[in-house]
Known about the structure:
About 35% of the residues lie in helices and about 25% in strands. By secondary structure, the chain is of the alpha+beta class. The strands form two sheets. Strands 1-5-6-3-2-4 form a six-stranded antiparallel sheet. The longest helix is centred in the first third of the chain and has 26 residues, at about 50-75. The protein is elongated. The model has no long low-confidence stretch (mean pLDDT about 80). Belongs to the FliM family.
Amino acid sequence: MVDVLSQNEIDALLAALSSGEADAEELKKEDTQKKIRSYDFKRATRLSKDHLRSLTRIHENFARYLTTYFSTQLRTFVQINVVQVEQLPYDEFIRSIPKMTILNIFEAEPLEGRMVLEVHPNIAFAMLDRLLGGLGTSPSRVNALTEIESIIMERIFGRALESLKDAWKTVVDLEPRLETLETNPQFMQIASANDTIALISLSTKIGDTSGMINICIPHVVIEPIMQRLSVHHMFVTQKKAKSNEESEILQSRVSKAKLPIIAELGHSRITVREFLGLAQGDVITLNKLVGEGLAIRVGEKVKYVGIPGTVKGKAAVQITDIVSEGVEEDDE
Length: 332
């Protein structure tokens, strides 16, 4: 990787060269020396910056969906934003969360494996208090969940996971399903201690209560779709989806368009004097025989051929042939 200097560092380096404090030849010599970087095999890099950027975009959408969902359910001010997307060992994630927290363990077909939506107790109990008619405050002391509280939380977070489907639709069609709700991180084992995970941290504010919501996705779970997490693939997919949507809108509008359909018995030419002299019972000779098909126009194009008749006492035309290529007919 190439180190990028800030403007202040560049100015300081130029000043040092001008004053003689630094020697350009020495700097070149140092630059040619082999550089050694430390590498921690416990923190294996499995996700590129491109992958992390894609995960950030996906979960920014997820954060917006969650904001709308929780605002509707809790009927109070809710603000959720992505603050960080990183990769780290699973064991480090477990050690970073409280000993008593809300762990929503879920699966999302067609991905194989389990993921977790971890909600800080302050946020979870503020939601619970609001749903039970309170002001949405978090208790000073967090106790174990009662059976009723567990059912309420499973219901609200189970429905919240449905927003993942919309957030991930540009990459893969997911079917999230809450498997279980746990409160002790030691009882949750969705990956090995040294396995790399993608950790998406969402800052959450409900009324006056703040906390974090973390999404833990093991690398082995998203490994089959890693290629789809490239920015190029997502851009092409979004463009294709937009194109399909525009086509559907155009097709819907065209299907509702109204066009005149005219069945022509034939043509005839008469003078103005003859026209003014027409009376009831007069016969006008047309340019078509009685048994000859009628031209049926759709707009200005002849699209069908038919024969005249009646249906239940009303004039009608029966289509006998289709003109595949609409043609313009002369008035003669």
